[in-house]
Design goal:
Order of helices and strands: HHHEEHEEEHEEHEEEEHHHHHEE
Oligomer: single chain
Helix content: 40-55%
Strand content: 15-25%
Largest sheet: 6 strands, antiparallel
CATH topology of the largest domain: Beta-Lactamase
CATH architecture of the largest domain: 2-Layer Sandwich
CATH superfamily of the largest domain: PAS domain
Number of strands: 13
Distance between the termini: 45 Å
Number of helices: 11
Shape: rod-shaped
Radius of gyration: 55 Å
Number of domains: 2
């Protein structure tokens, strides 16, 4: 198997494992986040439901408290309009001072006919503002006002004020304990007016709930959203675009029905949402003909808000996978490079031996191929009859002493050999006799020049055969034989090519 193919397989395996880990981990984490979001939305809905009930009961109590202020009774019984306004404002002031920071947005007193007598912060309120058709009719705009004036019922509910949005309203009748019973209504007491305390359900209120619940909140009535906790690009003002988008999604998603839980998409983002009905409270049961409650609230949470965790995991897996791939490929490259360098050294040695240098030994090239180099040296020593590794003798410089060195005349590639008059006899000489004769002549020549050598017959013959093979390719001949030449104090072997 080639190194490239191995690299491809390793890269494929790492990529496959990374991809599997990426999708399995992120999908599981995304599913866990979705379940966690559903659970958090359910808890937030329950908390908001209880909070709305407590606030509704609180406003019921507040309306009852301010209705019992004697100043409002004096205001309604006064004949002078200025006295009415003054007494009402004094009563309003006493009430607000007791409430601290949670002052109502609307405080108003109406008389027994439904006309507004006084309104906090408004010097000249329109008397017929809460009447249908103005002053000419006695029909009141809100059914709760009529019940408070006629049946001595204290009510806490949600009103949709035209131009002012949704308000949580408390209505309580004002009773004249000194009035004679013949003038009393169905309740057995004389009701001479009512007080209204209203608190706006604005974006600020929604944001307070958002901080408490950890989820976005929106208030709606009759399928229209009036306030949300969504901010525009992180700025304080409300994101009206999200308000409109949620209004359009209320009916389609079924969130206008209290108790609904579903998934909706707003501005390209997915939200888990659940709706509740804003509670209505009264001190007496309401008639079946009383208008049903239509106001509610929606709790919304985007799973993508927790998506940062998924993003971090995705990035970590991708970085880990790419890092592992890079390290694996780099490790393969370095390992291959290290081994190839050692292999190149061994190949050069083998090529040198093939070219006739039988005195060549393989030096250690690295830990990986050290055994191979040593094995080759042992093999050459046994084939050539020279000392095995560890048995060599060394000179003063620490180099191994090579005995039996045989000198050959170099033949250039393409060089034409000189004619040899004894070529026929040399070619016909049997190979065993030829090798023995050449070996004997070589030893005699070495003795003649006064430099006898201890070369072994096996080593000598091995070198002859290696050079014969090399020169056959050089001369492109049938065979090559050698003559011993003694000249200029040197003994060399001269090649004689045989072509036929």
């Amino acid at each position: 198997m080639s190194r490239s193919l191995i690299g491809v397989i390793v890269a494929f395996v790492i990529a496959a494992l990374t991809t599997t880990a990426y999708f399995v981990t992120t999908s599981r984490l995304s599913e866990d986040i979705r379940k966690d979001t559903d659970a958090r939305v359910a808890r937030a809905r329950g908390t908001l439901q209880r909070t709305a009930q407590l606030e509704g009961l609180g406003i019921l109590k507040k309306a009852e408290v301010i209705a019992a202020d004697p100043g409002l009774l004096r205001a309604l019984k006064a004949d002078n309009p200025q006295d009415r306004i003054r007494e009402s404002n004094l009563a309003f002031g006493r009430f607000k001072s007791d409430q601290g920071d949670t002052v109502p947005d609307i405080l108003a007193v109406i008389d027994a006919t439904g006309d507004i007598v006084a309104m906090d912060g408004v010097s000249n309120p329109s008397p017929a503002e809460w009447k249908k058709g103005g002053q000419k009719t006695g029909d009141l705009l809100f059914a709760g006002l009529d019940l408070a004036l006629k049946k001595r019922i204290i009510i806490s509910e949600i009103w949709n004020f035209s131009g002012k949005g949704l308000m949580r309203v408390g209505i309580a009748p004002i009773i004249d304990p000194e009035a004679t019973l013949p003038a009393a209504g169905d309740s057995g007491v004389v009701i001479i007016g009512a007080v209204v305390a209203a608190y706006s359900l604005t974006a600020d209120e929604a944001r307070k709930q958002e901080q408490l619940l950890g989820a976005d909140v929106a208030y709606f009535d009759n399928k229209q959203v009036f306030a949300t906790s969504f901010k525009r690009d992180g700025r304080p003002e409300e994101d009206t675009g999200m308000q409109k988008a949620l209004s359009g999604a209320l009916t389609a998603s079924g969130l206008d029905k209290p108790g609904t839980s579903t998934t909706i998409t707003l501005d390209g983002r997915e939200y888990q949402a659940a709706s509740i009905q804003l509670a209505r409270f009264s001190t007496k049961p309401l008639d079946a003909s009383y208008p049903p409650a239509t106001a509610g609230a929606v709790v919304l949470m985007a799973p993508s808000a927790q998506g940062e965790r998924v993003g971090i995991v995705k990035l970590f897996i991708l970085v880990l996978g790419l890092g592992s791939l890079a390290v694996a490929l780099f490790g393969m490259y370095m390992s291959n490079h290290r081994i190839l360098v050692q292999v190149d050294h061994v190949e050069l040695g083998v090529a040198d031996i093939i070219n006739g240098n039988l005195d060549r030994t393989f030096r250690p090239v690295g830990d990986e191929l050290e055994g191979l180099s040593n094995g080759l040296n042992v093999m050459l020593a046994r084939l050539l009859g020279r000392p095995e590794p560890g048995d060599e003798e060394f000179d003063e410089d620490g180099n191994p002493i090579v005995l039996g060195r045989v000198e050959f005349e170099e033949a250039e590639e393409g060089e034409k050999p000189a004619t040899d008059p004894d070529l026929a006899a040399l070619a016909q000489e049997p190979e065993p006799d030829y090798y023995k004769r050449v070996f004997t002549e070589y030893l005699d020549g070495r003795k003649e020049i006064g430099n006898p050598d201890e070369v072994s017959f096996e080593n000598f013959i091995a070198k002859l055969r290696v050079n014969e093979g090399k020169l056959r390719a050089t001369y492109n001949c049938k065979a090559v034989r050698f003559r011993v030449v003694v000249k200029d104090g040197k003994v060399t072997l001269k090649p004689v090519p045989i072509f036929a």
